[in-house]
Amino acid sequence: MFLRLQIENFRLFAALRTEGRWPEGAVVLVDASGRVAELNQAAQARELIPGMTMARVLSRCSGVTVLHADPAAERAAKRLLWNVAWQLTPQIELGDDEQVGSATLEFPHPNLEKLAQQVPPLLEQLRRSGLPARAGLAATPDWAGFAAMAAERFALKILPTKQRVHELLAHLPLAALDTLSADACRILEGWGIRSLAGLAALPRQDLGQRLGPDGLRAWDILNGTAQRVLRFGELEPDYRESFDLEEPIQDLASLRYLMQQACEALAHQLEQSGKIARSLSIDLWMENGQTHRKTIRLPEATRRADLMERLIGNYLEQLPLTAPVSKGRVAIDPVDPLARQAGLFERSVRNPWRLQETLDQLAGLLGSESFGAPRCLNTHRPDAYRLVPLPTDPSSERLSPSSDKLEARHYVTPPSSPAAAGSSVLSPQPSALQMGPPLRRFRPPVPAKVWLEQNHPAHLECAIVSGPVRDFHGPYALNGDWAEARPWAQWEWDVEIESSGVFCLRRADKQWHIVGAYD
């Protein structure tokens, strides 16, 4: 048995997929000569036909939408068709030239009931991707093509017997058979033959004498006596989806529609190749020459299109579109699935995708520069840190001794005897390590006014504390990054304000700040 997947007006709908919108009314696709090559049902209802010039088209339908052939979009649509068909079998022949937009699948040992359940979901996948398809199942590739031609849109038509095939041929015109030339059709119509069933009922030898090899070939196709051998092909995996718009768009809904189409196509490619996506990259080219690029690391490697589309949607909602988008691309980083068993005491997130969405929304509200997990920098500068994206998998985060591990200044109590000194050096006791009082930092530091006496703080005033300095320790000089473009230097005092507490006072760049309070 053979299955034919046929996309109607393939070049037209391939171009429509990259438009970011689904125009209402008549739509036509023009070729390089400026004539109509394909058109939708609304254009047919306005009495537009293939081959018309644009002058005649506009005279009959002034509000028609005109598209041009897009080879890149056709290649992407053909790859999508192949990936969808591959879910049933790898024995696939893709149509070219006049048969472009079709895929013929061979099933040496078919199960009709199982195929009848598997094909409709594939047609629905093509519909969601913007490609209206029909399907036909029959004993020969050409009969399957006739069944797909007569099927309803997004439906499967099965012709299990030769009798059912001939019943269908009685309703198909001669032009439905590609091997018949226009001259042969006129000759047959002169004989009173109007349908393919009438042609199939003619004697084969007499038909060959009058129409030659084309007539014999047509008779063999209609009666199923000759079956051509399919030419199976293989497409190299491509994990990129691009769109180049004739009319740039700026509204978020149209852009999300294009991203949804791209995620659907990439999900089918991952399914076909047995891969999963670890991260995805988005490139947008604006009409004013600006470019936006974003790499999103997925919370979990996946091939689900809806999850990828939701993360892209969150990014687009935060992206200020200062100009219309004229071109875009979505690419994924494929990896092999890794099966592992979770540990009994392993930490995990119940729904990492929902957590990632929440983090993206918070970053959009607060700004990416003000949201994240703090990490200490490898420097002696106090309170130097940076913000990194929050992890969605806690088990993957480990503290780095060089940058992420917080250090504390320890004070060793001097030994009281030589014996104690020896034991302290060889095996220090935990009780010998002492830490100073914890500092509760103010972020940002509080500006202050300081009066000095003999170059030491004597009186302090700020928004949180004011009063004379009862006691102080310092100054402690700190500096660093001498070889960098922005070296730093500062002086710190630990001051006790009368009836208020102990604070850390800093002077840098001729300005005073209270950086924290000691508990």
What does this 3D model show about the protein?
By secondary structure, the chain is α+β, with helices and mostly antiparallel strands. It has 15 helices and 22 strands. The protein has helices at residues 10-17, 41-45, 54-60, 71-86, 112-128, 141-150, 162-169, 182-190, 196-200, 204-211, 213-223, 252-273, 305-318, 352-366, 418-426, and strands spanning 2-7, 27-30, 36-39, 65-68, 92-94, 102-106, 133-138, 156-158, 240-249, 276-286, 291-302, 325-335, 373-376, 385-388, 410-412, 433-435, 439-453, 456-462, 466-480, 488-497, 501-508, 511-518. Strands 17-18-19-20-21-22 form a six-stranded antiparallel beta barrel. Strands 5-6-1-7-8 form a five-stranded mixed β-sheet. Helix 4 packs across helix 12 (252-273), helix 10 (204-211) packs antiparallel against helix 11 and helix 13 packs parallel to helix 14 (352-366). The longest helix has 22 residues, at 252-273.
Give the structure's gist in a few sentences.
With 519 residues, the chain is of the alpha+beta class. The protein has helices at residues 10-17, 41-45, 54-60, 71-86, 112-128, 141-150, 162-169, 182-190, 196-200, 204-211, 213-223, 252-273, 305-318, 352-366, 418-426; strands at residues 2-7, 27-30, 36-39, 65-68, 92-94, 102-106, 133-138, 156-158, 240-249, 276-286, 291-302, 325-335, 373-376, 385-388, 410-412, 433-435, 439-453, 456-462, 466-480, 488-497, 501-508, 511-518. A six-stranded antiparallel barrel has the order 17-18-19-20-21-22. A five-stranded mixed sheet has the order 5-6-1-7-8.
